[in-house]
Write a structure and sequence with these properties.
The protein is built from 5 helices and no strands. With 152 residues, the chain is mostly helical. The longest helix is centred in the C-terminal third of the chain and has 32 residues.
Length: 152
């Protein structure tokens, strides 16, 4: 197997792992967005410890960047890997622009500020957009892997 094949596998696995929490957030949104304040704060407790998934996001970004460099002589697969990296960078930027501030303002959903409902929408819809971006990154890295020339 070529080194790029190992990078493709790593990028695919990391993107798939990133989809786990992203998908969970997206599919929980319809059931959570209308909860009462008490119920919402209770439910948010299930996410304690999920911050470790940030390692997967950073790993996915790094793997896609490394893959793009490794595939620089194969234009289309390189562009797909680069697009996957850009999408994972967008996921991280969106997280730090919208989701992280909501986590901080609520002490990770253990303190209730006056604007908790606005923060809930910011948190929930931020995660929903991130799920779509993460899925798009997964599609890009899969397309990159499928488009690389194989050794015979």
């Amino acid at each position: 197997m070529r080194p790029a094949s190992y990078l493709s596998l790593a990028a695919l696995v990391l993107a798939a792992l990133a989809l786990v929490p992203a998908g969970a957030h997206l599919f929980a949104l319809p059931n959570k967005i209308g909860l009462t304040q008490d119920d919402y704060f209770t439910v948010q407790g299930i996410y304690r410890g999920w911050s470790l998934f940030g390692i997967v996001l950073i790993g996915s970004l790094a793997a896609n960047l490394a893959l793009a460099v490794a595939l620089r002589r194969e234009r289309v697969p390189c562009l797909f890997a680069a697009a996957g990296a850009l999408l994972m960078a967008a996921v991280l930027l969106l997280f730090f622009a919208f989701i992280y501030p909501a986590n901080q303002a609520t002490a990770n959903w253990t303190a209730v500020p006056e604007n908790w409902d606005m923060l809930r929408r910011q948190w929930e819809y931020g995660h929903a957009v991130n799920a779509v971006l993460t899925f798009a990154a997964f599609i890009c890295v899969a397309a990159s892997a499928l488009g690389t020339r194989r050794e015979i």
